[in-house]
Amino acid sequence: MKGKNYYYSCVKPEESDAQTERFRALGARDGEIFIDTIGEKSSQRNNLRLLKQLALREGDTLTVSSLYCLSDLKKGLADELHWMRDNGIQLRIADIPLSVQEHDEKSQQFLSDLMFEVFDATILKEREQRRQKQSEGIRAAKMKGVHIGRKPKERGTEFEKLKQQWQRGEISLREAGRRLGVTHQTFKKWVEEEK
């Protein structure tokens, strides 16, 4: 079953007309083109959301100007690609000429699946490299004696007095914590650390 074709891009406002013409050169008709504009900050991608909710169905083909028009973030890009794969949407990317050439249905499906696999692998590899660098940085900082994480709260001058009152049963755990400006769990942890 051959689905419908849709075209999507996210561009600066002044590039909108030129992008529409590029899509028309690929065979797009007016009702098939969805373009979001991007300002100084990231785009809300309302037309992409609308396209996903109302138009795209299994077997349809979505042509995008570039892969990164789908999301500003790698995580968002991975989510969009998974949504397309899970919903049976074939993906064509104008920046990749082989993907926008005419192919028979089986070849187009194979090419689309291949692109999903390559992008998944690329995103996964980048995520692993980022985690590796982060853990190496943390390890190096700890070796230099740099404190990682939130600084511990000061116990305050009243702590000893409140601890003794709590141990004698004169005040509750919650009351002791409240007076020090911490939770009762923190107060209890401080008492246990001193044992």
Folded structure, characterized:
With 195 residues, this protein is α/β, with parallel strands linked by helices. Helix content is 53%, strand content 10%. The chain is built from 8 helices and 4 strands; from the N terminus they run E-H-E-H-E-H-E-H-H-H-H-H. Strands 2-1-3-4 form a 4-stranded parallel beta sheet, sandwiched between helices. Helix 3 links the parallel strand 3 and strand 4 (90-93). The longest helix is centred in the middle third of the chain and has 39 residues, at 105-143. The radius of gyration is 28 Å and the shape is elongated. The mean pLDDT is 83.
Q: Summarize this, please?
A:
The chain has helices at residues 16-25, 46-55, 74-86, 97-100, 105-143, 159-167, 173-180, 184-193, and strands at residues 5-11, 33-37, 61-64, 90-93.
